[in-house]
């Protein structure tokens, strides 16, 4: 993912989980077919922290539980300003390409499927999002979180450049 990703400890966070996708997978053996389940889960505190995980098990509930545990290990902090993102961002992961843009208050979350689950878990209220290419939920979730991890707020830009906040906006 992005090199400026900030990991978060989940000990004091109240996280809500959202099931993005569940798939039944089949392994063909000499004795016949063996069925198991694969679940992609997104967790977030709806206040700027989000993570995703993949769980696999022979039971649906066990796969979801494993996905939630994996997601709690991969939490990242994302800058959310007034219920939207600081700037436009594009990101590509595998065959999926996502574009997210800040939106005016009252717009809502204009996104579909896997992207919507990530953005809602993050606590974003107004955003425009578009996915191009593959609609594979694995790649869409990873591309969305990758794009969100590359977002920077004005304070971090000022700190990196060694200038004041006024100089960031006024040139």
Brief descriptors of the model:
171 residues; alpha+beta; 4-stranded antiparallel sheet; 4-stranded mixed sheet; 5 helices; 8 strands; elongated
Describe this structure in words.
By secondary structure, the chain is α+β, with helices and mostly antiparallel strands. The protein contains five helices and eight strands. It has helices spanning 60-72, 113-122, 137-149, 154-161, 165-170, and strands at 16-29, 32-44, 49-57, 76-77, 89-93, 96-102, 109-110, 127-133. The protein has a four-stranded antiparallel sheet with strand order 1-2-3-4. A four-stranded mixed sheet has the order 5-6-8-7. Strand 2 and strand 3 (49-57) form a beta hairpin. Helix 2 packs parallel to helix 3. The two termini are 30 Å apart. The relative contact order is 0.18.
Straight-line distance between termini: 30 Å
Report helical residue fraction.
Answer: 25-40%
For the sheet with most strands, the description reads: 4 strands, antiparallel
The average pLDDT is: 89
Radius of gyration: 18 Å
Query: What structural class do you assign from the helix and strand content?
Result: alpha+beta
Count of runs of 4 or more consecutive helical residues = 5
Query: What is the beta-strand fraction?
Result: 25-35%
List the strand order in the largest sheet: 1-2-3-4
Q: Uncertain segments of ≥5 residues (pLDDT<50)?
A: none
Inertia-based shape: elongated
What is the number of beta strands? 8
Give the topology string: H per helix, E per strand. Answer: EEEHEEEEHEHHH
């Amino acid at each position: 993912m992005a090199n400026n990703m900030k990991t978060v400890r989940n000990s004091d966070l109240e996280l809500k989980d959202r099931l993005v996708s569940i798939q039944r997978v089949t392994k063909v053996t000499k004795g016949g077919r063996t069925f198991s389940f694969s679940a992609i889960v997104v967790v977030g505190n709806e206040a700027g922290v989000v993570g995703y995980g993949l769980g696999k098990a022979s039971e649906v509930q066990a796969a979801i539980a494993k996905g939630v545990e994996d997601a709690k290990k991969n939490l990242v902090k994302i800058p959310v300003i007034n219920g939207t993102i600081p700037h436009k961002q594009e990101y590509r992961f595998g065959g999926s390409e996502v574009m997210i843009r800040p939106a005016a208050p009252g717009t809502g979350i204009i996104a579909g499927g896997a992207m919507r689950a990530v953005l809602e878990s993050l606590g974003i209220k107004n955003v425009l999002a578009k996915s191009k290419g593959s609609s594979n939920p694995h790649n869409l979730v990873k591309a969305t979180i990758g794009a969100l991890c590359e977002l920077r707020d004005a304070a971090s830009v000022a700190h990196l450049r060694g200038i004041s906040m006024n100089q960031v906006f006024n040139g």
